[in-house]
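Quick start: read one record
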Amino acid sequence: MNSRRLDAARKPHILPKYIIYGFFVIGLVSAIAVRAIIVFQRLEPSWVMPVWYAGIIGYIVFFLYRYMITKKRKKAIDDFRLIDKVKANACLTEEDRETVLYLLSSIKSSPEDLNYAIIFILSILAILADTLLSTLR
């Protein structure tokens, strides 16, 4: 294998948008399922376990993906010794700059902030739904 192939294999890259948003949807559906349990518990108890499994399995897939992305980012930082180079005010090579660009672009293109906001709102809505359903009984 020539050195150009090794460099290409070592060079981190952002995944296609359809993969990023596919996992975003898996995380969102899982968040909805887990929070919907409180409603199903009161309205249709037979749906609690299937919804719980759907939510938990979705979370397993989603958080495994997020784990792998985080590991990939940390590996890029370590492999290119970016923290040491920045601390030493060392000149970055073209490969270093590409890696920094990957890291910044990866963070910028990730919908994780939207995911956190939606989970926050869904959590509040789940509490409100439970409170409302508790007062109606």
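Residues 24 and 111 are 7 Å apart (CA to CA).
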